[in-house]
Write a structure and sequence with these properties.
By secondary structure, the chain is α/β, with parallel strands linked by helices. The chain contains 14 helices and 17 strands.
Length: about 425
């Protein structure tokens, strides 16, 4: 037995300071430690209540500790947890059927995260291009200010230098264009491009919706050059924008789509969806994962998809979105010195800071947090709201009240 451990390790008291003492400092978490949650309600170690408008960065779309998902997972826990991909299992087969029947796709590959889903998509795109056209067709085109994950490959494809500094040399044959800039796309997407990867709404880059003409142009250029179009819907997918996936809103069908975050409502799972023609280039042994498609994650994800992919549920997302947008537009009008024009889609919403408060988004969210409202940022200049899709009208009103109180306190302290 490790001499450092004692018999009470599982119940040993821990605090926020423990993070600074024992965890690798890749994050700077809030000063409180959540210990219990239900729906959009969260309580910390001191018993303080918070209204959660982050849903774990657009993950817990059906709320924390969702009873339906808890029951489904508990039942699966009593049968089989893990088999390895030397075998298949019933939950993953049902999930694969549900996703292919609900989308453009014929085939699904399951993994554990959005980064892994994008890694699989990019590898498949290169494999397809090399197999169909030859190794000269290998270049990847992405957008500046995009975010596609934290592996070396996906962080290189993401167009943010702050995430690649110190990790050089980076993988070659990756170029970046301006988001929503059609001329930039036309100049970059030529016959040597294997794939173009884009978020239909940029999340980490500031909650910026893709212009429909820009996305349509990407589709046309990919068709013209034989490149594959990949939609990264890790953050925008699974009902977040009022459709199961945002490509359905914009009327542009990708060749490959990646999904994660809300797919498991907090249980780790990612998916890559594609067509029969493209999927055949991932033959046996070409790619893999130990845990991807395990029965536990697949069970949760299947219940998530079946719950969210209903007309009434998606209609309610749009209704809740309209209420929040109206509140934020009024907030920005009442505090023009503090906030800019609200943007986003569905329940993925960005509220930019006004010119005089650029770089202060995190400071504002900390003020709101002290008042009991959990918010996100999307870069230093944008407050991001991504509440659970089950958010109620009363919770929307409560969030508006707290954001106004936070604005008053923030300005008073400035």
């Amino acid at each position: 037995m490790n001499a450092k451990l004692d018999s009470g390790v599982t119940t040993r008291p821990v605090t926020r300071q423990t993070f600074d003492e024992v965890l690798v400092p890749t994050y700077a978490p809030a000063n409180f430690v959540p210990v219990r949650a239900s729906g959009l309600d969260v309580w910390d170690q001191e018993g303080k209540h918070y209204l959660d408008f982050t849903s774990g960065i657009a993950v817990c779309s059906l709320g924390h500790a969702n009873p339906q998902l808890t029951d489904a997972l508990t039942a699966q826990l009593k049968t089989v947890w893990h088999l390895s991909n030397a075998y298949t299992n019933e939950p993953v087969l049902r999930l694969g059927l549900a996703l292919t029947e609900a989308t453009f796709a014929d085939r699904a590959f399951f993994c554990n995260s959005g980064a892994e889903a994008n890694e699989a998509a990019l590898k498949l795109a290169r494999k397809y291009a090399h197999g169909k056209f030859g190794p000269h067709k290998s270049r990847i085109v992405s957008c500046l200010s995009s975010f596609h994950g934290r592996t070396l490959f996906t962080v290189s494809v993401g167009g943010q230098a702050k995430y690649t500094e110190g990790f050089e040399p980076l993988p070659p044959e990756i170029n970046h264009i301006k988001y929503n800039d059609i001329e930039s796309a036309r100049a970059a997407i030529t016959d040597d491009v294997a794939c173009v990867i884009v978020e239909p709404i940029q999340g980490e880059g500031g909650v910026i919706p893709g212009d429909i003409e820009f996305l349509k142009t990407l589709r046309e250029l990919c068709d013209k050059t034989g490149a594959l179009l990949i939609f990264d819907e890790v953050q925008s997918g699974v009902g977040r924008t009022g459709a199961l996936y945002d490509y359905m809103n914009v009327g542009v069908t990708p060749d490959i789509l990646t999904s994660a975050k809300a797919l498991g409502n907090g249980f780790p799972i990612g998916a890559m969806l594609t067509t029969n023609e493209i999927a055949q280039y991932f033959n046996v042994g070409a790619h893999g994962t130990t845990y991807g498609g395990n029965p536990l994650a697949s069970t949760v994800a299947l219940n998530v998809i079946e719950t969210i992919n209903q007309p009434a549920f998606l209609a309610r997302v749009k209704e809740a979105s309209a209420r929040i947008f109206a509140n934020l537009e009024k907030l920005a009008a009442d505090y023009p010195q503090l906030f800019g024009k609200v943007r986003g889609k569905g329940l993925l919403i960005g509220l930019p800071m006004a010119e005089g408060y650029k770089g202060k988004a995190k400071d504002y969210t900390k003020t709101a947090e002290k008042l009991g409202l959990m918010l996100l940022v999307a870069g230093p200049d944008v407050i991001r709201l991504a509440p659970a899709l089950i958010v109620s009208d009363a919770q929307i009103a409560d969030a508006d009240r707290i954001m106004r109180q936070a604005a008053d306190e923030f300005l008073a302290a400035a």
